[in-house]
Structure to design on (408 residues):
Protein backbone atom coordinates (compact mmCIF):
# COMPACT_ATOMS: atom_id res chain seq x y z
CA UNK A 1 0.00 0.00 0.00
CA UNK A 2 1.25 3.48 -0.88
CA UNK A 3 -0.06 6.51 0.99
CA UNK A 4 -0.81 9.78 -0.80
CA UNK A 5 2.05 12.28 -1.04
CA UNK A 6 0.42 14.82 1.32
CA UNK A 7 0.55 12.22 4.05
CA UNK A 8 4.34 11.89 3.83
CA UNK A 9 4.95 15.35 5.27
CA UNK A 10 6.29 15.81 8.79
CA UNK A 11 3.22 17.80 9.83
CA UNK A 12 0.84 15.13 8.59
CA UNK A 13 2.80 12.39 10.36
CA UNK A 14 2.76 14.32 13.62
CA UNK A 15 -0.97 14.98 13.25
CA UNK A 16 -1.65 11.29 12.76
CA UNK A 17 0.58 10.36 15.66
CA UNK A 18 -1.34 12.61 18.03
CA UNK A 19 -4.72 11.77 16.53
CA UNK A 20 -4.16 8.05 16.82
CA UNK A 21 -3.72 8.09 20.57
CA UNK A 22 -5.56 11.25 21.65
CA UNK A 23 -2.95 12.11 24.25
CA UNK A 24 -3.01 15.20 26.40
CA UNK A 25 0.48 16.46 25.58
CA UNK A 26 0.84 19.27 23.07
CA UNK A 27 3.38 19.75 20.31
CA UNK A 28 5.80 16.94 19.57
CA UNK A 29 5.58 15.30 22.99
CA UNK A 30 4.33 12.01 21.67
CA UNK A 31 6.95 11.74 18.97
CA UNK A 32 9.78 12.73 21.29
CA UNK A 33 8.64 10.35 24.00
CA UNK A 34 8.69 7.38 21.62
CA UNK A 35 12.02 8.19 20.01
CA UNK A 36 13.61 4.94 21.12
CA UNK A 37 13.54 5.73 24.85
CA UNK A 38 10.38 3.94 25.94
CA UNK A 39 10.72 0.70 27.84
CA UNK A 40 9.54 -2.31 25.82
CA UNK A 41 6.21 -3.46 27.31
CA UNK A 42 5.70 -6.93 28.72
CA UNK A 43 2.58 -7.48 26.61
CA UNK A 44 3.70 -8.31 23.08
CA UNK A 45 0.37 -7.08 21.73
CA UNK A 46 0.95 -3.71 23.34
CA UNK A 47 4.55 -3.74 22.09
CA UNK A 48 3.33 -4.12 18.52
CA UNK A 49 0.81 -1.32 18.95
CA UNK A 50 3.58 0.98 20.19
CA UNK A 51 5.82 -0.18 17.34
CA UNK A 52 3.13 0.86 14.87
CA UNK A 53 3.09 4.34 16.38
CA UNK A 54 6.87 4.53 16.09
CA UNK A 55 6.59 3.46 12.46
CA UNK A 56 4.13 6.30 11.78
CA UNK A 57 6.56 8.81 13.25
CA UNK A 58 9.37 7.45 11.08
CA UNK A 59 7.25 7.70 7.92
CA UNK A 60 6.99 3.91 7.63
CA UNK A 61 3.26 4.07 7.20
CA UNK A 62 2.80 0.85 5.25
CA UNK A 63 4.75 -0.96 7.97
CA UNK A 64 2.48 0.57 10.61
CA UNK A 65 -0.62 -0.58 8.75
CA UNK A 66 0.76 -4.09 8.24
CA UNK A 67 1.74 -4.37 11.92
CA UNK A 68 -1.71 -3.46 13.15
CA UNK A 69 -3.41 -5.61 10.50
CA UNK A 70 -1.40 -8.61 11.67
CA UNK A 71 -2.18 -7.81 15.29
CA UNK A 72 -5.95 -7.79 14.83
CA UNK A 73 -5.88 -10.96 12.76
CA UNK A 74 -4.25 -12.74 15.70
CA UNK A 75 -6.35 -10.93 18.33
CA UNK A 76 -9.69 -9.97 16.77
CA UNK A 77 -11.07 -9.04 20.22
CA UNK A 78 -8.44 -6.29 20.63
CA UNK A 79 -10.85 -3.44 19.82
CA UNK A 80 -8.31 -0.69 20.39
CA UNK A 81 -6.08 -2.19 17.69
CA UNK A 82 -9.09 -2.44 15.38
CA UNK A 83 -9.83 1.26 15.85
CA UNK A 84 -6.19 2.18 15.13
CA UNK A 85 -6.35 0.07 11.99
CA UNK A 86 -9.48 1.88 10.84
CA UNK A 87 -7.84 5.26 11.40
CA UNK A 88 -4.79 4.22 9.40
CA UNK A 89 -7.00 3.19 6.50
CA UNK A 90 -8.97 6.42 6.69
CA UNK A 91 -5.73 8.42 6.75
CA UNK A 92 -5.01 7.19 3.24
CA UNK A 93 -7.82 9.35 1.97
CA UNK A 94 -8.06 12.31 4.34
CA UNK A 95 -6.37 13.93 7.34
CA UNK A 96 -7.53 12.70 10.74
CA UNK A 97 -9.18 15.16 13.13
CA UNK A 98 -8.74 12.91 16.17
CA UNK A 99 -8.20 9.33 17.28
CA UNK A 100 -11.27 7.24 16.53
CA UNK A 101 -12.34 9.14 13.44
CA UNK A 102 -13.40 5.87 11.83
CA UNK A 103 -15.36 4.75 14.88
CA UNK A 104 -18.86 3.60 14.00
CA UNK A 105 -19.88 2.48 17.48
CA UNK A 106 -21.52 4.47 20.30
CA UNK A 107 -19.57 7.58 21.29
CA UNK A 108 -19.27 6.24 24.84
CA UNK A 109 -17.44 3.19 23.55
CA UNK A 110 -15.10 5.34 21.44
CA UNK A 111 -14.39 7.48 24.50
CA UNK A 112 -13.51 4.30 26.43
CA UNK A 113 -11.06 3.25 23.74
CA UNK A 114 -9.49 6.71 23.72
CA UNK A 115 -9.01 6.44 27.49
CA UNK A 116 -7.42 3.01 27.10
CA UNK A 117 -5.10 4.29 24.39
CA UNK A 118 -4.09 7.24 26.55
CA UNK A 119 -3.33 4.97 29.51
CA UNK A 120 -1.30 2.48 27.49
CA UNK A 121 0.81 5.02 25.62
CA UNK A 122 1.28 7.30 28.63
CA UNK A 123 2.96 4.40 30.39
CA UNK A 124 5.63 4.25 27.73
CA UNK A 125 6.16 7.98 27.67
CA UNK A 126 6.66 8.18 31.42
CA UNK A 127 8.05 4.80 32.43
CA UNK A 128 10.43 5.31 35.39
CA UNK A 129 13.09 2.95 34.06
CA UNK A 130 14.95 -0.01 35.56
CA UNK A 131 17.02 1.89 38.12
CA UNK A 132 14.05 3.16 40.16
CA UNK A 133 11.67 1.29 42.45
CA UNK A 134 8.34 2.24 44.07
CA UNK A 135 8.96 3.83 47.45
CA UNK A 136 6.26 1.63 49.03
CA UNK A 137 8.57 -1.42 48.82
CA UNK A 138 10.74 -0.57 51.82
CA UNK A 139 11.79 -4.10 52.80
CA UNK A 140 10.91 -7.54 51.46
CA UNK A 141 10.69 -10.80 53.36
CA UNK A 142 12.48 -13.84 51.96
CA UNK A 143 9.14 -15.71 51.77
CA UNK A 144 7.65 -13.09 49.44
CA UNK A 145 8.94 -14.31 46.09
CA UNK A 146 6.72 -11.90 44.11
CA UNK A 147 5.13 -8.55 44.84
CA UNK A 148 2.27 -6.94 42.93
CA UNK A 149 2.02 -3.14 42.86
CA UNK A 150 -1.06 -1.61 41.20
CA UNK A 151 -1.17 2.08 40.25
CA UNK A 152 -4.81 3.09 39.81
CA UNK A 153 -3.83 6.57 38.59
CA UNK A 154 -2.00 5.17 35.54
CA UNK A 155 -3.98 1.93 35.02
CA UNK A 156 -0.81 -0.11 35.40
CA UNK A 157 0.01 -3.25 37.33
CA UNK A 158 3.66 -4.09 38.09
CA UNK A 159 5.01 -7.51 39.00
CA UNK A 160 8.29 -7.64 40.94
CA UNK A 161 10.58 -10.55 41.78
CA UNK A 162 12.25 -10.58 45.18
CA UNK A 163 15.92 -11.22 44.41
CA UNK A 164 17.74 -11.45 47.73
CA UNK A 165 15.68 -8.61 49.14
CA UNK A 166 15.88 -6.43 46.03
CA UNK A 167 12.65 -5.80 44.12
CA UNK A 168 13.29 -6.39 40.42
CA UNK A 169 10.61 -5.45 37.90
CA UNK A 170 9.88 -8.44 35.68
CA UNK A 171 6.54 -7.53 34.11
CA UNK A 172 3.97 -4.76 33.84
CA UNK A 173 0.45 -4.87 32.48
CA UNK A 174 -2.39 -2.58 31.47
CA UNK A 175 -5.03 -2.70 34.21
CA UNK A 176 -8.65 -1.75 34.85
CA UNK A 177 -9.91 -0.55 38.25
CA UNK A 178 -13.13 0.64 39.92
CA UNK A 179 -15.38 2.97 37.98
CA UNK A 180 -15.97 4.96 41.18
CA UNK A 181 -12.29 5.88 41.38
CA UNK A 182 -9.82 5.18 44.18
CA UNK A 183 -9.95 4.87 47.99
CA UNK A 184 -12.85 2.58 48.81
CA UNK A 185 -14.76 3.64 51.92
CA UNK A 186 -18.02 1.72 51.92
CA UNK A 187 -19.92 -1.17 50.40
CA UNK A 188 -21.19 -0.34 46.92
CA UNK A 189 -19.18 2.83 46.25
CA UNK A 190 -17.55 1.09 43.22
CA UNK A 191 -14.11 2.31 44.29
CA UNK A 192 -10.81 0.45 44.40
CA UNK A 193 -9.18 0.30 47.85
CA UNK A 194 -5.82 1.92 48.51
CA UNK A 195 -3.55 -0.01 50.82
CA UNK A 196 -1.39 -3.05 51.45
CA UNK A 197 -3.23 -6.32 50.92
CA UNK A 198 -2.32 -10.00 50.55
CA UNK A 199 -3.58 -12.75 48.26
CA UNK A 200 -5.97 -14.98 50.21
CA UNK A 201 -6.95 -17.53 47.55
CA UNK A 202 -6.73 -18.57 43.92
CA UNK A 203 -10.06 -19.17 42.18
CA UNK A 204 -10.10 -21.35 39.07
CA UNK A 205 -12.11 -19.96 36.12
CA UNK A 206 -14.14 -23.19 36.02
CA UNK A 207 -15.90 -22.22 39.27
CA UNK A 208 -16.44 -18.55 38.35
CA UNK A 209 -18.87 -16.61 36.13
CA UNK A 210 -17.42 -15.54 32.78
CA UNK A 211 -17.10 -11.96 34.06
CA UNK A 212 -13.86 -12.97 35.81
CA UNK A 213 -12.23 -14.46 32.75
CA UNK A 214 -9.11 -16.55 33.34
CA UNK A 215 -9.53 -16.69 37.13
CA UNK A 216 -9.18 -14.57 40.24
CA UNK A 217 -6.97 -13.80 43.23
CA UNK A 218 -9.05 -12.48 46.17
CA UNK A 219 -7.25 -10.14 48.61
CA UNK A 220 -7.89 -9.37 52.29
CA UNK A 221 -9.90 -6.17 51.95
CA UNK A 222 -10.93 -4.85 54.43
CA UNK A 223 -7.63 -5.31 56.22
CA UNK A 224 -6.89 -4.39 59.84
CA UNK A 225 -6.34 -0.73 58.98
CA UNK A 226 -9.54 -0.51 56.92
CA UNK A 227 -11.49 -2.02 59.80
CA UNK A 228 -10.03 0.46 62.28
CA UNK A 229 -11.19 3.30 60.02
CA UNK A 230 -14.66 1.80 59.60
CA UNK A 231 -14.36 0.98 55.92
CA UNK A 232 -16.83 -1.58 54.61
CA UNK A 233 -17.24 -3.77 51.56
CA UNK A 234 -15.87 -7.11 50.43
CA UNK A 235 -14.97 -9.17 47.37
CA UNK A 236 -11.98 -7.19 46.09
CA UNK A 237 -10.12 -9.40 43.61
CA UNK A 238 -7.43 -9.30 40.98
CA UNK A 239 -9.08 -11.08 38.05
CA UNK A 240 -9.34 -11.44 34.28
CA UNK A 241 -11.91 -10.15 31.78
CA UNK A 242 -14.90 -11.79 30.04
CA UNK A 243 -13.94 -14.31 27.38
CA UNK A 244 -15.43 -12.21 24.57
CA UNK A 245 -13.31 -9.22 25.62
CA UNK A 246 -9.63 -8.44 25.15
CA UNK A 247 -9.46 -5.60 27.71
CA UNK A 248 -11.76 -3.21 29.53
CA UNK A 249 -11.66 0.61 29.87
CA UNK A 250 -9.41 2.03 32.62
CA UNK A 251 -12.33 2.59 35.04
CA UNK A 252 -14.85 -0.19 34.57
CA UNK A 253 -14.99 -2.66 37.50
CA UNK A 254 -16.98 -2.52 40.73
CA UNK A 255 -13.75 -1.97 42.68
CA UNK A 256 -11.60 -4.93 41.66
CA UNK A 257 -8.45 -4.93 39.55
CA UNK A 258 -8.81 -6.56 36.12
CA UNK A 259 -6.12 -7.41 33.57
CA UNK A 260 -6.36 -9.09 30.14
CA UNK A 261 -6.73 -12.85 30.45
CA UNK A 262 -3.38 -13.60 28.87
CA UNK A 263 -1.69 -11.43 31.52
CA UNK A 264 -3.56 -13.07 34.39
CA UNK A 265 -2.53 -16.46 33.02
CA UNK A 266 1.10 -15.30 33.00
CA UNK A 267 0.80 -14.60 36.75
CA UNK A 268 -1.28 -17.65 37.60
CA UNK A 269 1.47 -19.84 39.06
CA UNK A 270 3.48 -16.96 40.53
CA UNK A 271 1.17 -15.47 43.17
CA UNK A 272 0.98 -17.33 46.48
CA UNK A 273 -1.91 -17.55 48.91
CA UNK A 274 -1.14 -15.76 52.18
CA UNK A 275 2.26 -14.52 51.03
CA UNK A 276 2.04 -12.35 47.92
CA UNK A 277 1.43 -8.66 48.71
CA UNK A 278 -0.91 -6.73 46.41
CA UNK A 279 -0.23 -3.04 47.02
CA UNK A 280 -2.84 -0.67 45.57
CA UNK A 281 -1.81 2.96 45.11
CA UNK A 282 -3.22 6.04 43.39
CA UNK A 283 0.08 7.31 42.00
CA UNK A 284 3.51 5.91 42.80
CA UNK A 285 6.69 7.62 43.94
CA UNK A 286 9.70 6.02 42.23
CA UNK A 287 13.03 6.42 44.03
CA UNK A 288 16.61 5.23 43.64
CA UNK A 289 17.85 2.12 45.41
CA UNK A 290 20.19 4.25 47.49
CA UNK A 291 17.25 6.35 48.72
CA UNK A 292 15.43 3.12 49.53
CA UNK A 293 18.41 1.82 51.49
CA UNK A 294 18.59 5.02 53.55
CA UNK A 295 14.89 4.84 54.42
CA UNK A 296 15.22 1.17 55.31
CA UNK A 297 18.17 1.75 57.65
CA UNK A 298 16.37 4.63 59.36
CA UNK A 299 13.23 2.59 60.03
CA UNK A 300 15.20 -0.45 61.13
CA UNK A 301 16.54 1.67 64.00
CA UNK A 302 12.97 2.29 65.23
CA UNK A 303 12.11 -1.40 64.99
CA UNK A 304 15.28 -2.39 66.85
CA UNK A 305 14.44 0.04 69.64
CA UNK A 306 11.03 -1.64 69.97
CA UNK A 307 12.68 -5.06 70.18
CA UNK A 308 15.33 -4.13 72.76
CA UNK A 309 12.86 -2.13 74.85
CA UNK A 310 10.67 -5.22 74.92
CA UNK A 311 13.57 -7.28 76.26
CA UNK A 312 14.22 -4.71 78.99
CA UNK A 313 11.09 -5.79 80.92
CA UNK A 314 10.49 -2.10 81.62
CA UNK A 315 6.86 -1.40 80.59
CA UNK A 316 7.45 2.34 80.32
CA UNK A 317 10.40 1.88 77.97
CA UNK A 318 8.37 -0.59 75.94
CA UNK A 319 5.34 1.72 75.87
CA UNK A 320 7.32 4.60 74.35
CA UNK A 321 7.25 2.64 71.08
CA UNK A 322 3.44 2.76 70.98
CA UNK A 323 1.15 5.62 70.00
CA UNK A 324 -1.21 7.05 72.61
CA UNK A 325 -3.94 6.11 70.13
CA UNK A 326 -2.97 2.42 70.34
CA UNK A 327 -5.62 -0.09 71.34
CA UNK A 328 -5.23 -3.78 72.17
CA UNK A 329 -8.63 -5.42 71.94
CA UNK A 330 -10.82 -3.73 74.54
CA UNK A 331 -7.85 -2.04 76.25
CA UNK A 332 -6.89 1.52 75.48
CA UNK A 333 -3.27 2.67 75.68
CA UNK A 334 -3.28 3.30 79.46
CA UNK A 335 -4.96 -0.01 80.32
CA UNK A 336 -2.65 -1.89 77.98
CA UNK A 337 0.49 -0.42 79.64
CA UNK A 338 -0.83 -1.47 83.04
CA UNK A 339 -1.53 -4.95 81.67
CA UNK A 340 2.05 -5.24 80.39
CA UNK A 341 3.37 -4.08 83.77
CA UNK A 342 1.55 -6.89 85.56
CA UNK A 343 2.69 -9.50 83.04
CA UNK A 344 6.35 -8.44 83.13
CA UNK A 345 6.47 -8.44 86.93
CA UNK A 346 6.68 -12.24 86.89
CA UNK A 347 9.36 -12.47 84.20
CA UNK A 348 13.05 -12.85 84.97
CA UNK A 349 14.07 -12.43 81.32
CA UNK A 350 12.59 -11.75 77.88
CA UNK A 351 14.12 -12.53 74.50
CA UNK A 352 12.50 -11.27 71.28
CA UNK A 353 13.62 -12.47 67.85
CA UNK A 354 12.44 -10.96 64.56
CA UNK A 355 12.63 -12.96 61.32
CA UNK A 356 11.13 -12.70 57.84
CA UNK A 357 10.62 -8.95 58.03
CA UNK A 358 8.67 -7.01 55.41
CA UNK A 359 7.98 -3.26 55.55
CA UNK A 360 5.68 -1.36 53.17
CA UNK A 361 4.64 2.27 53.08
CA UNK A 362 0.85 2.43 53.11
CA UNK A 363 -0.51 4.06 49.91
CA UNK A 364 -2.61 7.13 50.54
CA UNK A 365 -1.27 7.38 54.11
CA UNK A 366 2.13 9.14 53.95
CA UNK A 367 2.93 8.47 57.62
CA UNK A 368 1.77 4.84 57.97
CA UNK A 369 3.89 1.70 57.46
CA UNK A 370 2.85 -1.95 57.52
CA UNK A 371 5.35 -4.26 59.21
CA UNK A 372 5.01 -8.05 59.12
CA UNK A 373 7.40 -10.57 60.68
CA UNK A 374 7.81 -13.84 62.54
CA UNK A 375 8.23 -13.13 66.24
CA UNK A 376 10.15 -15.62 68.38
CA UNK A 377 9.30 -14.72 72.00
CA UNK A 378 10.95 -16.44 74.94
CA UNK A 379 10.77 -15.86 78.69
CA UNK A 380 10.74 -17.93 81.86
CA UNK A 381 6.91 -17.98 81.72
CA UNK A 382 6.14 -18.21 77.98
CA UNK A 383 7.69 -19.38 74.73
CA UNK A 384 5.84 -18.60 71.50
CA UNK A 385 6.43 -18.21 67.80
CA UNK A 386 3.80 -16.18 65.96
CA UNK A 387 3.42 -14.20 62.76
CA UNK A 388 2.75 -10.58 63.69
CA UNK A 389 1.60 -7.51 61.78
CA UNK A 390 2.02 -3.94 63.02
CA UNK A 391 0.90 -0.60 61.66
CA UNK A 392 3.43 2.11 62.53
CA UNK A 393 2.66 5.83 62.43
CA UNK A 394 5.14 8.69 62.19
CA UNK A 395 3.92 11.18 64.76
CA UNK A 396 4.31 14.94 65.13
CA UNK A 397 7.69 14.63 66.88
CA UNK A 398 9.07 12.66 63.91
CA UNK A 399 9.17 9.33 65.80
CA UNK A 400 7.65 6.13 64.47
CA UNK A 401 5.26 4.42 66.91
CA UNK A 402 2.91 1.43 66.72
CA UNK A 403 -0.76 2.26 66.28
CA UNK A 404 -2.17 -1.22 65.56
CA UNK A 405 -0.82 -4.70 66.21
CA UNK A 406 -1.99 -8.31 65.97
CA UNK A 407 -1.40 -11.83 64.77
CA UNK A 408 -1.85 -12.90 61.14
Amino acid sequence: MVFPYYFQSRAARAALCVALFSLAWAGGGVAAGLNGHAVVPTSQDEARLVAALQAVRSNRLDEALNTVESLIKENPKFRLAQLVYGDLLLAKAQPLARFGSIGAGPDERIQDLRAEARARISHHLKHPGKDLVPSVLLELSSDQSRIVVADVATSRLYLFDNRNGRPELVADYYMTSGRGGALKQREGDLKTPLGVYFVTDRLDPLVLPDLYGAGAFPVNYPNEWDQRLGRTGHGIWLHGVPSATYSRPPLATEGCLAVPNQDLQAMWDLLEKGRTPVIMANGLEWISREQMRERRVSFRAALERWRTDGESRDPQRYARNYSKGFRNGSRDYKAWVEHKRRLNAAKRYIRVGVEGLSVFDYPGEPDIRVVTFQQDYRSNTLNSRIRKRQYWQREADGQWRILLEGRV
